[in-house]
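Slide 14.
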Amino acid sequence: MNRLRTLAGVVLTVLLLGAGETPLPTPGTEWRYYNGGLDNNHFSPLDQITPANVGQLEPAWTYDMEPTAAGDKVKCNPLVIDGVLYGTTDAKDVVALDARTGRQRWLFKPRELDPTGSQGPARGLAYWEDGTDRRLFFVHSRWLYAIDATTGRPIDSFGEGGRVPFSAGIDVGPEKIVAATSPGVVYGDRLITGSFVSEYLPAAPGDIRAFNVRTGKVEWVFHTIPHPGEFGYDTWPPEAYRTLGGVNSWPGLSLDPERGIVYVPLASPTYDFYGANRPGQNLFGNCLVALDARTGTRKWHQQLIHHDLWDRDLPCPPNLVTVTHDGPDGRPRRIAAVAQATKTGYVFLFDRETGQPLFEIRETPVPPSPLADERAWPTQPIPVKPAPFARQVFREEDITTISPTAHAYVKAEFKKYATTPFSPPSPAGVIVMPFFNGGAGWGGAAVDPRSGLLFVNANDMPWLLKLIDLDKALTDNPLDGAALYKNHCASCHGENREGGHYVPDLRRVDRKYSFVEARRIVQNGKGMMPAMTQLTDPQQIAVVSFVMNLKPASAPAVKPGNVTAKADVHPYALRYTNQGYTRFNDPEGYPAIKPPWGTLSAIDLNKGEIVWQRVLGEYPELTKRGIPPTGTRTEGGAIVTRTGSVLWEQPLPGSGFATPATYEAGGRQYVVIAVSRKTEKGYHGSYMAFRLKAK
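Slide 15: predicted structure.
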């Protein structure tokens, strides 16, 4: 059973802020924005819950989600406005609840309008109001919806029937996914949003767009893969924007409404792990970009990974904070800054207006690629301060000692792989530290806006990155379904078809789909899955037969015919692909490296120093074996209040993947979190709220 915790916890962290600081403007008693504010600081001024009474927190209400056949992790950070909580369910429905009681006011089911499914988790909503006109914005499947916050009904004047194609403003075909996992930000009458696109070719570009909140029309577009004549075009091959994709902003944006600047964290180009078809620096891949919120014009950018080969997307919205640094005259000065936490375990700090680094960044030499056609960038930017909050390299002395068996196994495996930071991928394999999902994860960092302390939870575990030579595989096994699955499907669905990384388990897919239906999905794509256009018809039949567990006698006949992959002439051809998102674990399934495996760090952005770091989470079964708390993997982020350092935990009926929120209703402070389903236990997910016991 998962537990809701504060300090040394897995899900919710309420942290001590410095006493005697000058109060700054606060977001008030509501939770009107994703992550608490447009600054994404996860901050609340509420102080009813204190170190003296936190032990008196008890469940206030629970809202149980509808049982559905479809469902995903619930990662929503809900909004609380005028006593109403707005969130999403595991089925991507939108629900409005009374914030005091949890009673449902309305439920909107976009899946009834578009039953084709939804891509990725729904982490939040955006809100806009003008007098009595109050609207919620969210993306379901391939549509951007605007619904009435009072009634839950679509706004007829927005697009057609309350929705517009979310791909509007991007020149894409039907085979390319343009969806969303995080909400946009509202500036005036504009909804500015990033997107989620395929991590495999063919993929759409991740252009940033501003939609008119009243009509749904696109008002401006910023091309993240530059077009001819635009800045950065020469950092790609000619016409790259036509055949390449990615460079999207999936974690969400931050907005400085006073300066009219939106801060955009961008992902890697597609394909993540092989870049021979995109030589160059690849702007604006892996950049923090500041855009004029009125026009979409670039004001400045900083690239934090050059020519990414490791899937080092910027994983979370940046934090807007004011820090105190010494000026040129040696006197302290207040600076409006933007801080970006990264998957690599670094925090980069920049002047919010100019983009100038507030701590030195050094271009550091890194290893070249062993592949003949790959041109890895020769240096990578490393900040001098703050020090990394997660380990950068797996050394032999770091091999686990959890047991003699584990140590011996890991030591033997360790010697097979390259371990240098930023070692380029290869068929021989490299160890990636921290792993593909962080360092910092999508939950992001929390900031005390008065003290300049940044709090970030980190995953500190090794993963393995190994490339597959597709040319060789296609020559050796042109119609081997298992080999085709391994080469084209395992990187997402897992080597054993077990799923993960937001994709479904395929081990029982034959119970859900007929052969014809499964073949159609491979041909056309579905949800987050792109069309497998690089495979010939016989190869598609072979891989579907393998996935459907069909024996040779019952599988559709596969004629050798033309078994040469379409990739030979396809514009999205790749020579290599990743073997899969593979954790480097010991035989028991625990990380191969010595703990801590999960941490919570406090970083002083004024001095660029880590103030403290603590282990976050534990495995109860290891604790019973006498092993001290090791830390665990986390997904959601922390929240910060004006109260004290506390220690409290609460059992949850399911899994806690979301970032919590706190608000005041009826004169009482609440803490609420979305809880994900555990279907095997008959639990379908819920929202759970907590408050102090009534006196």
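Speaker note: The radius of gyration is 24 Å.
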